[in-house]
C-alpha cells in the first residue's frame, strides 16, 4: 500500500536541497543517532548504545517488510538528518476512512527551524496521504513537546484528542 507513495522527493530548505527517501537497512545507524539526539527519546532509553543495535535492526526489518508501514529518511550532504515513520491504517469509523499515521518525526538538532520538518510534513499531507487514499493524517506528540505542538499547529494540525498509553511490563 505505501509503495504507491511518490519517492524519492526533493526538499528545499534553508540548509540546502535534501532528499526524502525510503530507508534501507544501511540507514539504521543514522536513524538511531537521530533518536538519541532527541532529549525526550534519550530519556526513554534511545541512547544509541551498541547493546541496543540488534533491537533497532529487528524493528527496522519489521517496518520495511510491512506493506502498511514505511520508514523514511531525509538525506542532506550524504548524511541522514531527518526521519519519520508512516503507517497506513484502514478504519471503520468516518465511513471507512483510511488514516495515515505519522510517528517518530525527527530532524537533527542543529537543523531544526531550517524548514526541513515543514517541507516533510507538507509532503505528507499533500502527496503521501492522497497517494494512499487517506482521508486524514494523524500523529501523536508527547505532552512535553510544546515546541513541536506549535510547529504542527502552524501546519494546520489540530490538537483534537487526548491520548493514553499503557506500558506493558516486560519480563
Overall description:
The chain has 171 residues and is an alpha+beta fold. The protein has one domain: Aminopeptidase, CATH 3.40.630. It has six helices and six strands; from the N terminus they run ββαααββαβαβα. It has a six-stranded mixed sheet, with helices on both faces. It is globular.
Fraction in helix: 25-40%
- Total number of beta strands: 6
For CATH, the homologous superfamily is named as Gcn5-related N-acetyltransferase (GNAT)
Given the structure, what is the number of helices?
A: 6
Strand order of the largest sheet: 1-2-3-4-5-6
Give the domain tally: 1
So what's the overall shape? Answer: globular
Low-confidence stretches: none
Biggest sheet architecture: 6 strands, mixed
The sequence of SSEs as H and E is EEHHHEEHEHEH
* CATH classification class: Alpha Beta
Task: Indicate the mean pLDDT.
Answer: 93
Judging by the overall fold, what is the CATH architecture?
A: 3-Layer(aba) Sandwich
The CATH topology name reads Aminopeptidase
Radius of gyration: 16 Å
Amino acid at each position: 500500500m505505501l509503495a504507491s507513495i511518490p519517492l524519492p522527493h526533493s526538499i528545499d530548505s534553508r540548509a540546502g536541497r535534501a532528499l526524502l527517501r525510503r530507508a534501507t537497512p544501511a540507514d539504521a545507524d543514522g536513524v538511531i543517532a537521530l533518536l538519541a539526539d532527541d532529549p525526550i527519546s534519550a530519556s526513554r532509553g534511545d541512547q544509541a548504545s551498541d547493546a541496543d543495535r540488534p533491537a533497532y535492526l529487528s524493528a527496522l526489518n519489521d517496518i520495511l517488510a510491512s506493506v502498511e508501514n514505511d520508514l523514511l529518511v531525509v538525506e542532506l550532504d550524504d548524511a541522514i538528518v531527518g526521519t519519520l515513520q508512516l503507517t497506513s491504517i484502514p478504519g471503520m469509523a468516518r465511513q471507512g476512512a483510511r488514516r495515515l499515521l505519522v510517528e517518530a518525526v525527527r530532524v537533527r538538532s542543529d537543523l531544526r527551524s531550517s524548514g526541513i520538518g515543514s517541507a516533510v510534513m507538507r509532503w505528507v499531507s499533500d502527496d503521501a496521504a492522497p497517494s494512499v487514499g487517506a482521508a486524514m493524517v494523524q500523529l501523536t506528540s508527547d505532552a512535553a513537546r510544546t515546541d513541536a505542538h506549535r510547529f504542527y499547529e502552524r501546519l494546520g494540525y489540530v490538537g483534537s484528542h487526548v491520548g493514553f498509553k499503557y506500558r506493558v511490563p516486560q519480563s
